[in-house]
């Protein structure tokens, strides 16, 4: 007789029951309860479905797709149309994770009106929040978006769209003056209504101070373990990135029985605090 018991999704690595939709309200409650938030990048429907089924809280359609999907050496060539296309693919595969999409280089730097138009394109493609890079000049844009109902994730520290101005992919906020500027920019973005803040490649102590003061949710990447959540580029943690990987990345395929097993381990390790550990803190000053 045929076994008619439905098999658990992804070889048993993902729970069989669908979970409730992750909302901004729920993410804030997680932060308040001290529950760490697990985020990964996704660029297509199949990986979005898998990551969602494995319990990833937030999917980021990152402009890192310019590097991992398109083979560019930076995120600069990615267009708004390409971001909208990948956002719509991810939205079709996703069921319950919170979906964030990057505003790409050149799609918001021109004016508040341009930022609003570009955010509209990504929200209509299925995003629930848009991410933009930089501090100092960005709070007016953030305020305009938030006032019009667009949740915003800011991004400070190593901001890849400014890689040429920053002189490469290097740690930010190392000296006292640079750290003070980052703290001030984070405070201004929080005042402007940014609900989330990605901190990339900053010393863990600075990331902890910013996380303590920021009114929303902080997500670290190469920023130590004392942010409210963690994000990695999916291709990096599955070890399928071409070329060098940043030091803060752990290869979750090591010892995993499947991709879903690797993703489930990432979620578990972020939530338990096992990732990042001492070896994966990134560039701790
Ligand atoms: O584009 C991206 O994937 C990102 C993450 C590295 C945070 O911005």
What keyword list fits this structure?
285 residues, alpha/beta, eight-stranded parallel beta barrel, 8 strands, binds 3-methyl-2-oxobutanoic acid
- List bound small molecules: 3-methyl-2-oxobutanoic acid
Report the β-strand fraction as a percent range: 5-15%
The major β-sheet equals: 8 strands, parallel, barrel
What is the averaged pLDDT score?
94
Overall form: globular
Portion in helices: 25-40%
Count of beta strands: 8
- What's the oligomerization state? single chain
Backbone CA Rg: 18 Å
What would you call the structural class?
alpha/beta
Could you tell me how far the N terminus lies from the C terminus, measured between alpha carbons in angstroms?
A: 63 Å
Strand order of the largest sheet: 1-2-3-4-5-6-7-8
Sequence stretches where pLDDT stays below 50 over 5 or more residues: none
**How many individual helices?**
11
Order of helices and strands: HEHEHHEHEHEHHEHEEHH
């Amino acid at each position: 007789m045929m076994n008619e018991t439905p098999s658990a999704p992804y070889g048993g690595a993902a729970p069989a029951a669908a979970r409730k939709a992750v909302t901004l309200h729920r993410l804030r409650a997680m932060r308040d309860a001290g529950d760490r938030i697990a985020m990964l990048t996704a660029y297509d429907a199949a990986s979005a479905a898998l990551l969602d089924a494995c319990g990833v809280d937030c999917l980021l359609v990152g402009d890192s797709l310019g590097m991992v999907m398109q083979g560019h050496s930076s995120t600069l060539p990615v267009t708004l149309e390409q971001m909208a296309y990948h956002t719509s693919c991810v939205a079709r595969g996703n069921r319950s994770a919170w979906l964030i999409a990057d505003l790409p280089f050149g799609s918001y730097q021109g004016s508040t009106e341009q930022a609003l138009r570009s955010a509209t394109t990504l929200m209509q493609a299925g995003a629930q929040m848009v991410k933009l890079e930089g501090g100092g000049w960005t709070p007016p844009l953030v305020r305009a978006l938030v006032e019009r109902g667009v949740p915003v994730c800011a991004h400070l520290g190593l901001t890849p769209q400014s890689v040429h101005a920053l002189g490469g992919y290097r740690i930010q906020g190392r000296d006292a003056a640079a750290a003070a500027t980052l703290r001030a920019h984070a405070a201004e973005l929080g005042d402007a209504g940014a609900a989330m803040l990605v901190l990339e490649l900053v010393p863990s102590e600075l990331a902890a101070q910013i996380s303590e003061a920021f009114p929303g949710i902080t997500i670290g990447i190469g920023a130590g373990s004392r942010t409210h959540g963690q994000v990695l580029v999916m291709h990096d943690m599955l070890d399928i990135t071409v070329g060098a990987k940043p030091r803060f990345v752990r290869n979750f395929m090591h010892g995993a029985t499947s991709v879903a097993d690797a993703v489930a381990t990432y979620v578990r390790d972020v939530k338990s605090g096992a990732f990042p550990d001492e070896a994966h803190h990134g560039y701790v000053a």
